[in-house]
User: What shape does this take?
Amino acid sequence: MSSFPVTNARLAALRTRMAETGTDLVALGPSSHMAWLSGVHPHGDERPVMLLVAQDYAGFLMPALNAAAARKDTDLPFHPWSDDQGPEAALRALLEACGVTAPNLSVVLDETMRTDFALRLLDALDSPRRRFTEDTVGLLRAAKDDSEYRALKAAHLANDKAVKAAFAALEEGVTEAEIVELIKSEYAAMGAALEFCSVCFGESGAFPHHTPGAAPLKRDMAVLIDTGCRLDGYPSDMTRCGYFGQPEDGYAEVFSVVEQAVQAALAAAKPGVRACDIDKAARDVITAAGYGDRFLHRTGHGLGVDIHEPPYIAANSDVVLKEGNVFSIEPGIYLDGKFGIRLEEIVILREDGAEIFSEMPRDMVHVG
Assistant: This one.
């Protein structure tokens, strides 16, 4: 039994889920799945590394040169291999230890694993039936525990401070890239690292994934800031919008529509509701206002170890949401050549609805 308590609890939950789904083996590559389950995040290159989990055994196929670095994070057994030997014998020994040498076993593969790793494993098994992690590791990851909640909350409070500082620093002539650097430095002062940052001035906000550049801020220009940091292994994500100077005609109206869409999605977000119904709640508001064709993306994405992970809040998703799910609500309206407005919250589902991580108001920020 592992002496690492989080690993121990998550392995037990995974094995329960494996029994419920008739799964004989779960195989994870050097990915966020492996990090979530075991705390191990080894260097990933062409050398095969896997964590295999069966009902009575779990162990790593581990390149020998990475073993010492990985050992500090786990006491699960290693099956090491060296460059001059190759991984074949170590993989056979690991599979034998897992007790999975019979034919036609049910195997769950990490969908983010390198193809050559996955094929090596499948070739070593006898006619396996394979699927991906949606109903095992992915399902368990989607329901955040208290430690994950605390980490996500701390990351979002750090994000709030950085975004407030960024808006306060707006002045004529400052560039998008300079505001990104300011946000990065604010994160660093709080012990966090930049995960991503999009600062959009004026018509650049009409591109949902704009790359910040040397565009200078001018008076009476819209500002959109979508940014996130990573703190103690977990990320934040938030979008706020406002104006430097006076809003142009129509801006306040569009802002109000997007805010109403956020509120509608928040009201719809409850355990037992389908993801597509939350998307519809936001989309219906924007469509009714005449901007349906200017809402260019899904309403949200899950967030956890990864900045984007299931569940996805999209029109084509029938996933039924559960207590503990964490995801974004971020409707937007994008007007080419003018501006874009997106308001984003990350929420966790509680028994009675959605709890927002950020404590920064969504009000239109007015500077200058």
